[in-house]
Design brief:
The chain is mainly beta. The protein has one helix at residues 19-27, and strands spanning 2-5, 37-42, 46-51, 63-65, 69-77, 80-84, 93-98, 103-106, 112-116, 120-124, 130-134, 140-147. The strands form 3 sheets. A 6-stranded antiparallel beta sheet has the order 1-10-5-12-3-2. Strands 4-8-7 form a 3-stranded antiparallel beta sheet, with no helix packed on it.
Length: 148
């Protein structure tokens, strides 16, 4: 997991060949005023889900794991509280891995929480079970999907 600000994204752009492309796109487009939906940057290799979800209480949110994609969570308006727990500590698998959805779910509490503000981002790898959109009310955010 990596947490940083968009201002310092250049420090991690070398970690994946598509990271620079996504951060350039996010910095150069008014995504808060772009309609919600999928934004294709490089087909299924790199796309953004521009969303407006209703937040969930921490005790109701599940931990999710992806194997085909890296997630980059970027709040646009509001605070995105994201729970995290090491994969090796997760024991309550409630939905086995579904290759089509690229997701498996664990129903158990996270061990750490990050209050992600607009202008910040969080990168989660396949070994990072995470529980996004924790809180109250609505949130405007981006969930970038980067193919491994």
């Amino acid at each position: 997991m990596i947490v940083s600000t968009l201002k310092h994204s250049d420090r991690i752009e070398s970690l994946h060949p598509l990271f620079k492309k996504v951060f350039d796109y996010v910095k150069n487009h008014d995504l808060l005023n772009t309609p919600c939906g999928r934004i294709d940057i490089d087909g299924d290799n790199l796309f953004i889900n521009n969303t407006n979800p209703t937040c969930v209480a921490a005790d109701k949110q599940v931990l999710e794991v992806h194997r085909q994609y890296i997630d980059i969570h970027i709040p646009l308006d509001g605070v995105d509280v994201i729970g995290w727990k090491p994969l090796e500590d997760c024991t309550n698998l409630t939905k086995p891995y579904d290759e089509t959805a690229d997701c498996e779910l664990y129903t158990e509490p996270a061990t750490s929480y990050i209050n992600l503000q607009p202008g910040q981002f969080m990168i989660v790898w396949p070994e990072d079970p995470h529980a996004p959109i924790i809180g109250e009310g609505k949130l405007r955010k981006l969930c970038v999907k980067v193919k491994l």
